[in-house]
Amino acid sequence: MQKQVPLKHYPRRGATVAWVVTIIFAVLILIPSMLGFVMKFMELVNLSQGEADGGFAITPVVNYLLASAGFFFLLLWSAINGMFNDLEHPKFTMLENEEMLDKEQ
């Protein structure tokens, strides 16, 4: 008898198409957004260097950038450690725990 392989082990064609579409949209959206952000940030830096009153505006922006960088590195860390490999597992674990607790009552 042949051993049946579960369906989740077969590569899906739809998954590769979804990845390609996601990457295309990411490039189309993120590159212009990053360019706009960098241009505006350079204007802010020029403003802070030009006038004495413009320097106060750069501190909150740097705070937001540092906080965003921290969240981005947390996202990278979680992706590298495989926390997005099986998104359904926590749901099933929670349902199993709930079923076990209901049986105890």
TrEMBL record:
- Is Membrane a UniProt keyword of this protein? yes
Q: Which residues cross the membrane?
A: 16-41, 61-84
Keywords from the named record: Membrane, Transmembrane, Transmembrane helix
Annotated protein name in UniProt = Uncharacterized protein
